[in-house]
Write a structure and sequence with these properties.
The chain is of the alpha/beta class. It folds into two domains: 170 residues, Quinone Oxidoreductase, Chain A, domain 1; 140 residues, Rossmann fold, CATH 3.40.50. The protein contains eight helices and 18 strands. Strands 3, 5, 6, 7, 8, 9, 10, 17 and 18 form a nine-stranded mixed β-sheet that branches. A six-stranded parallel β-sheet has the order 13-12-11-14-15-16, sandwiched between helices. A three-stranded antiparallel β-sheet has the order 2-1-4, covered by helices on one side. Helix 3 links the parallel strand 11 and strand 12. Helix 2 crosses helix 3 and helix 2 crosses helix 7. It is globular and about 60 Å long. Bound molecules: NADP nicotinamide-adenine-dinucleotide phosphate. NADP nicotinamide-adenine-dinucleotide phosphate (NAP) binds next to helix 1, helix 2 and helix 3.
């Protein structure tokens, strides 16, 4: 957006996908929303789009992701991490000009109804959010966010949430001494979440990170230097049959079966996190080895808040994030684009798994 333009003259615009066929998309235009008393209007500056957002569509019904930004029946607004500015406020504690990191629709505007407001967070208490994960209702003003750095904005959009999951997943496994295993086998090794996990496993230093990936992404994954070994999905049988834990970012029944059949009883734990291969069926029925268990990051946050205290947990997370960001400058290639056609292209490429894994797409509408 041109800063000299009046932001309120800007028309409303939102990107929606068909809830039963995510390849189907449309842009919905409309006036900039009016505010009731106590509300805040954000103008979304830019947002990141990765496979993680496609998982929100996959879990749209089961985990409620379609309910964050309600729209016409049959259509859905997939949530994304973005930065946005308050351009109008009828809430006494929220000033116009406040810039916040948070969960937005792929749209130009979002209206929220703040409940709790502090220098560190503005929490949307809109009734349609009732029962949804509280973490997604938090909008973090850049001025009260210890992790914020202007030069890191794109990395924050692309990887902050993903890194946090991987930090907690490694911590969860390390806390149990990786169940006695010394190898962590990670699928969709080229995904940003897996890259962050491999980085953390290496930092913790008690296990080796082994990446599983597709042929087109193998060279990129090897060049990262974060994995001790990288094999293709059809080379799983070449791995040593020693005790291992599997962290599954792909959610692909065929990959899960190959890992379980190869390691058998040597597989100590199957930690299901992602579903990048969303069009493949997730299936683990009748396989040897442990039953997959979904990783629940909030439980690890609760545990470490008790063990270390919330302040120490935040400090550790912030320190680890800074290290990861510094190390990511060498591989992450931020690709910024603007407008409807760019969003449509980035979305369809992300959905189909056609994006280059080094690219981190940031889009503005
Ligand atoms: N449960 C949680 O709390 C949580 C939190 C964060 C992330 N996650 C999950 O972690 C996963 C990774 O997310 P990300 O944002 O880090 O991903 P990303 O960086 O966008 O990952 C891209 C990679 O995923 C694979 N991929 C993506 N789309 C595909 C498709 N249509 N067909 C086949 N392969 C495809 C490819 O890897 P390969 O060729 O290497 O397979 C591709 O290089 C997501 O499923 C996300 O939901 C879960």
């Amino acid at each position: 957006m041109n800063p000299n333009e009046d932001p309120l003259a800007d028309e409303g615009l939102a990107f929606e996908v068909g809830r039963s066929d995510w390849k189907q998309t449309r842009f919905v235009e409309g006036p900039v929303p009016d505010l009731a008393p106590g509300q805040v209007l954000f103008r979304v500056d830019r947002f990141a789009l990765t496979a993680n957002n496609i998982s929100y569509a996959l879990s749209g019904d089961s985990l409620g992701y379609w309910r964050f930004f309600p729209c016409e029946a049959g259509w859905g607004r997939i949530p994304v991490m973005g930065f946005a500015e308050v351009i109008r406020s009828t809430h006494p504690e929220v000033a116009e000009g406040t810039r916040c990191f948070g969960f937005y629709p792929m749209a130009r505007h979002l209206v929220i109804q703040p409940g709790i407001v502090s220098p560190a967070q503005i929490v949307d208490a809109a009734p349609h959010r009732a029962g949804l994960a509280p973490v997604y209702a938090q909008y973090l003003p850049t001025t009260g966010d210890a992790v914020y750095a202007e030069r890191r904005e794109d990395a924050i959009l692309l990887m902050r949430g993903l890194f946090m999951t991987s930090f907690l997943a490694d911590d969860f496994l390390a806390d149990q001494d990786y169940r006695g295993a010394r190898s962590v086998v990670i699928s969709s090794a080229s995904s940003k979440t897996s890259i962050a996990l491999a980085f953390q496993v290496k930092q913790t230093g008690h296990a080796r990170a082994i990446g599983l990936t597709s042929a087109r992404n193998a060279e990129f994954v090897r060049a990262l230097g974060f994995y001790d070994r990288v094999v293709l999905y059809d080379e799983i049988a070449s791995l040593a049959q020693e005790p291992a834990v599997f962290v599954d970012m792909a959610g692909d029944g065929a990959v899960t079966a190959a890992v379980h059949r190869h390691f058998g009883d040597a597989l100590q734990y199957d930690c299901a996190i992602g579903a990048t291969h969303w069009s493949a069926a997730r299936n683990s029925a009748g396989l040897p080895g442990p039953k997959p268990e979904f990783f629940f990051a909030p439980a690890q946050i609760v545990k470490r808040s008790k063990d270390w205290g919330p302040q120490r947990l935040s400090e550790r997370l912030a320190a680890a994030w800074t290290k990861f960001c510094d190390a990511s400058d060498a591989w992450l290639h931020v690709v910024r684009s603007d407008g409807r056609a760019a969003l449509e292209r980035v979305y369809q490429d992300t959905l189909a798994g056609r994006t280059d894994p080094a690219d981190g797409h940031i889009v503005s509408l």
